[in-house]
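Why does residue order matter? Because the sequence determines the fold. Keep that principle in mind as you read this record.
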Amino acid sequence: MPVKLALTNATGRQSASLARSASAVGYHLSVHVASTKYSPLVASEIGALPHTSVHYGDLSSAEVREELFDGANIAFINTTSFDKELEAGKGCADAAVAAGVEHIVYSSMPDHAEAGRGKPWHGLPHYRDKWQVEKYIRTLHVPSTFVYTGIYYNNFTSLPYPLFCLREAPWEEVEEWEGDWQDDWAEEKDGEETKGRKCGFEWQAPFAPDTKLPWLDTEHDFGPAVLQIFKDGPKKWGGKRVPLAFDVLDPPAVCAAFSRGLNRPVRYVEGPIEVSVPIPKGYHEQLDALQDLFGGPSVKGKNAPYWWDGIFDVKDAQSDRNKEKEEGGNTDEEADPNVRAARALWQGWRDIEGYAKDTFPVEERLNGRDWMD
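Structure:
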């Protein structure tokens, strides 16, 4: 009998990636779609996958949850702040248990207020409920695994959205930047090499320049990694927190990778989060709390680590690394242990330079940008 996977919020980047990966290897899918309003193309694509049933509606509906998990062998649960997250997460877990699901993978996030260690840290509004749902699932009699994603490459945009805006900097401005930004940036036009480009980019964020941040290409790498967790099963991953970040880079290194991928100057500026477009009140609160928790000295932040030491069990990744070393394979000697854990799950991961070169311009074009012309 084919394996049936139930998953929530199928138009989100995490669930869509998993749906594509699972369908490609023959899994049957039961997927939840809250609305087709914001992601109609993704909803249409996922709904058209072979052996897929789609359940529309709000996760607060017991009927929607019951239909979603009915007959499922395994389940991936990812809720959002728009779902009344604590209620929806607990409700989905209960429905999965009632349906006889054999393994739940839940997408969680840390609550820094519970890190202890005498640190003056606090939780983030959009993460606290996820942490509480994880704690609740641990009380249920069902094998479960908890995945923690790094920051999405796909968060970056040249649109004026807060925190991850790569602001277009006209070439005249780039030439005024301190350093040698204006040198060696040539392009061909009508068969001849010309000096300069239409623009460079600038990323302003509150992180200290030496802050190490975890990253992943969600659409490319999340699905295969979680699929491997399901294949390995709860005997290996039951009860564990698993980091899903395929690289750990500080902000200047991220900009350097974008610069190589886009073949144009990209620089980092440490500074406060700028909000120049209307955003929901709840997101304002999230950004304010994020700047205070993770921000560096320039914004008088607490400079807390994105993930604190000891939050994950990465012994399996260490064992895999030792085995590779004995066999003469790639050991990722310089990689963060959490990165090694993710790479052990999925070796086909894409780095941020590859994303910047192959995907970012396509997404930008779809968003109506024309800087690449």
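The chain has 14 helices and 15 strands.
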